[in-house]
From TrEMBL, chain A:
Superkingdom in the source lineage: Eukaryota
Keyword entries, A-Z: Prenyltransferase, Repeat, Transferase
Record's compositionally biased regions (Polar residues): 85-99
Example GO molecular function: Rab geranylgeranyltransferase activity
Source organism of the structure: Oidiodendron maius (strain Zn)
Disordered, as annotated region: 85-135
Coiled-coil segments on the chain, per record: none
Pfam families attached to this UniProt entry: PPTA (PF01239)
Residue ranges, compositional bias (Low complexity): 100-122
Reactions listed under catalytic activity: geranylgeranyl diphosphate + L-cysteinyl-[protein] = S-geranylgeranyl-L-cysteinyl-[protein] + diphosphate
Record GO cellular component, one term: Rab-protein geranylgeranyltransferase complex
Protein name stated in the entry: Geranylgeranyl transferase type-2 subunit alpha
Automatic annotation (TrEMBL), chain B:
Quaternary structure (record): Heterodimer of an alpha and a beta subunit.
Cofactor binding description: Binds 1 zinc ion per subunit.
Alphabetized Gene3D superfamilies for the sequence: 1.50.10.20
Gene Ontology MF, one: metal ion binding
InterPro entries: PGGT1B-like, Prenyltrans, Ptb1, Terpenoid_cyclase/PrenylTrfase
Source organism superkingdom: Eukaryota
EC number: 2.5.1.60
Domain Prenyltransferase alpha-alpha toroid: start-end pairs: 24-336
Keywords attached to this entry: Metal-binding, Prenyltransferase, Repeat, Transferase, Zinc
Pfam families linked to this entry: Prenyltrans
Record protein name field: Geranylgeranyl transferase type-2 subunit beta
Known role: Catalyzes the transfer of a geranylgeranyl moiety from geranylgeranyl diphosphate to both cysteines of proteins with the C-terminal sequence -XXCC, -XCXC and -CCXX.
Gene Ontology terms: cellular component: Rab-protein geranylgeranyltransferase complex
């Protein structure tokens, strides 16, 4: 959408006459192509020729959503129903090569950087029709999936491409035999894995992955649960890059199902929680990561399963109040240890403050004198380290009446402050 | 209206800026006025799929800048109505298919132009009166029915068009337009609220669908939808959400959309408006954010970019100005966060 991250250098030079003429030529070519497709569709020419024209246009401009819709109609109302011409290849997708990538001036991404990789993505058996009554439809869907792939690589944030691809795959479920459709869907897992290796935070990629998994698990495709392998995938992704919040998020969503499907005992759940804390603590200790917020949000998620009221106890629902208190106490000790060498890390002070107060709530008591003293000093550190959010720290202070800090002492003094 | 970037570009770096940064109102008005006169640029044609959104962004920015008259009202209304289909929905431009997003932009533009009566007279779609109703045929009802028809009656969320993509963006946009049309009774509001609740995450934020990662834009659309529907009580933990939102501010003053991503002017709107809805705008440094947005403008040729040094466009111009308005920047019309 609009222009994200286009550096200013791209049009600072005044256009030469030659460049201006070339641009007029490109405009002509583009609008003529749009008009041609419009005219053919108005005549209901739902043919391969028109499909190829839409391919040509979409390579110039994949954001043209109406053309993606035209393509859907071409398939539904025309090509899918023509069962006899299965030997005809889908020429556009077959002829696609890196060199044929258009030089759309609006493209924010350098096509040369992506196509060499894309060219290696030629998937096996692209042209050989699956024998049987669904030959044509299968070829069309598979050919179209192959055509789209380089566009996805070049325009990974274009909503319309991802949507069209999912629609196409849904057509496979509706129109092909289950095992054939399943094979097409299975390929998507590898594809989206590659997309996420290129950009491990791509929002579309993660959403697509969840969509693909949900179909592969569904009875429509004779699927079964993939929660174990997906959980393993998040482990791999966070270990590759500890700041990958998208992967931590996905992990948090998989855990309840994972434990249910494992029929995990209370002890196994307790061990699972320990393992997750170990993973995140090691991540926090890794180089530079105490300052990365992704790991702290996941830490917050784990802590919420201990300190929050029922409903959040999704990992260890049967821990007694005493067990939860003991667990939180132990984590507070760990947090203090983390401060050693990371005295400038606001996230640790934030966690100490939050969970010290949570602990006193869990124990149904007012904070101890020593707690109050420490909370005051942690809040002073937070103010010092994180002045951008001073309004938030003001509110924290207000919500804790007993924390009234005399402004003369905070935040520079650092030392203990009298009530 | 075009989405062509430039010609302006944001200031290069903070060090070259004058100490007193000012919003260049006249330059921005001029920039928006000339957007539709750039048909000799290829990008003008390649961004046709955003034409009606472009008009909304430009016109809304002009309203906030106090110059609503800078675009010819009748011309705008005629263009918008020329984008409508027989089913009541609007496309991005003549020749483009109907889609919820463009329909909502159309309704917003018509509302800004105070042209609801014109829509009622000239609008298309299913205008027939409801059984038993005594009211006359209505173009407003035609649009309302198109939008209501996109609600998923099983889950409460909305699809973008007949092809079925669903997203909380569409839920919000649909509800906003239905509320402007005064046709919220055509949809299942409770089911929509339940759907938003199911999109909440442990960090307090919201995603595009149940299970999706929190994202500042999705947070705003969910909060704004709840606000339009009068159901902000459905936000379970405003403290946690406020923490997550306030952590979007990076050292330079700008805001990002997710943890450890780059800052961008459009999040000035999505994050700040979200904070404003839950009463926590003061949890970020408003002065630094104001300065960041001003650093992203081209003071001479007008327009605002995503980041200092990048090409300007009308999308970021709109969200930058809306952000400044929310932050109480002087001389701007006050914007409503929802």
């Amino acid at each position: 959408m609009a222009s994200h991250g286009i550096p200013r250098s791209s049009t600072t030079e005044p256009k030469t006459e030659q460049a201006r003429l070339k641009e007029q030529e490109q405009i002509q070519e583009y609008t003529a192509l749009v008009d041609l497709i419009d005219a053919k569709i108005a005549e209901r020419q739902y043919t391969r020729e028109v499909l190829d024209l839409t391919s040509k246009l979409l390579k110039k401009n994949p954001e043209n959503y109406t053309i993606w819709n035209v393509r859907r109609r071409l398939l539904i109302h025309g090509l899918f129903s023509k069962q006899s011409d299965s030997s005809l290849p889908l020429t556009e997708s077959q002829s696609f090569s890196p060199g044929a990538t258009t030089t759309t001036s609006s493209a924010n991404l350098s096509s040369s950087a992506t196509t060499s990789w894309a060219s290696k993505e030629t998937l096996p058996n692209r042209a050989s029709p699956i024998p049987g009554k669904n030959g044509t439809t299968h070829d069309l869907i598979k050919g179209d999936l192959d055509f789209i792939f380089p566009l996805m690589i070049e325009y990974p944030k274009c909503y319309w491409i991802w949507n069209y691809r999912l629609w196409l795959l849904d057509q496979a479920i509706d129109r092909l035999e289950v095992d054939v459709a399943r094979e097409l869907w299975s390929r998507e897992l590898a594809l989206v894995g590659k997309m996420l290796n290129r950009d491990s935070r791509n929002f579309h990629g993660w959403a697509y992955r969840r969509g693909v998994i949900s179909q592969l698990e569904s009875s429509k495709l004779h699927g079964r649960s993939m929660v174990e392998s997906e959980f393993g995938y998040t482990t791999k992704m966070v270990k590759a890059h500890l700041s990958n919040f998208s992967a931590w998020h996905y992990r948090s969503k998989l855990i309840p199902r994972l434990l249910t499907e494992r029929a995990a005992s209370d002890l196994e759940r307790y061990q699972f929680l320990n393992n997750e804390f170990e993973l995140i603590t090691n991540a926090i200790y890794a180089d530079a990561y105490p300052y990365a917020q992704s790991v702290w949000f996941y830490y917050q998620f784990l802590m919420s399963t201990i300190v929050d009221e029922v409903g959040h106890a999704i990992i260890t629902p049967n821990l007694t109040d005493e067990d939860r208190i003991e667990y939180a106490t132990k984590q507070l000790v760990n947090l203090r240890d983390m401060l050693d060498g990371a005295e400038d890390c606001k996230w640790i002070y934030n966690a100490l403050l939050e969970y010290t107060l949570a602990l006193s709530r869990m124990q149904n008591r007012q904070p101890l004198e020593v707690d109050k003293e420490e909370c005051r000093s942690w809040l002073a550190e937070l103010r010092k380290l994180d002045p951008l959010r001073s309004g938030r720290w003001d509110d924290v202070e207000k919500s804790l009446k007993w924390l009234d800090v005399d402004s003369r002492f905070a935040p520079e003094s650092g030392g203990p402050i009298e009530l | 209206m075009s989405l062509v970037t430039g010609p302006g570009r944001a200031s290069i770096s903070a060090s070259s800026l004058p100490t007193e940064l000012q919003l260049s109102i006249a330059a921005h008005v001029k920039y928006i006025q000339t957007l539709d006169k750039r048909k000799d640029e290829l990008e003008y044609h390649l961004t046709e799929h955003l034409r009606i959104n472009g008009i909304y962004w430009g016109l809304c920015a002009l309203h906030l800048l106090g110059h609503p008259e800078a675009l010819d009202r009748d011309q705008v209304v005629d263009f918008v109505l020329s984008c409508q289909h027989e089913n009541g929905g609007f496309g991005a431009a003549p020749g483009h298919d109907a889609h919820l997003l463009y329909t909502v932009s159309a309704v917003q533009v018509l509302a800004l132009c105070d042209a609801m009566e014109t829509l009622d007279e000239r609008g298309k779609g299913d205008r027939s009166s409801l059984p038993g109703s005594t009211s006359s045929e209505s173009g407003i009802l035609g649009v309302g029915r198109y939008l209501a028809g996109l609600q998923n009656r099983r889950t409460g969320t909305f699809a973008g068009d007949e092809w079925g993509e669903e997203d909380t963006r569409f839920l919000y946009a649909g509800m906003l337009a239905l509320s402007l049309l005064n046709k919220l009774h055509l949809v299942d509001v409770d089911l929509a609220v339940d759907h938003i609740i199911s999109c909440a995450n442990f960090d307090g934020g919201y995603g595009a669908s149940p299970g999706a990662e929190s994202h500042a834009m999705q947070v705003l659309v969910c909060l704004a939808a709840l606000s339009v529907l009068g159901r902000l009580d459905a936000v379970s933990d405003k403290e946690k959400l406020g923490v997550w939102l306030s952590e979007r501010q990076v050292d330079g003053g700008g805001l990002n959309g997710r943890p450890e991503k780059l800052e961008d002017v459009c999040y000035s709107w999505w994050v700040a408006a979200s904070l404003s809805i839950i009463g926590k705008l003061h949890w970020i440094d408003e002065e630094k954010l104001t300065r960041y947005i001003l650093e992203c403008q081209d003071p001479e040729q007008g327009g605002i970019a995503d980041r200092p040094g990048d090409m300007v466009d009308v999308f970021h111009t709109h969200f930058g100005i809306a952000g400044l308005s929310l932050l109480g920047y002087p001389d701007l019309v006050q914007v409503d966060a929802a």
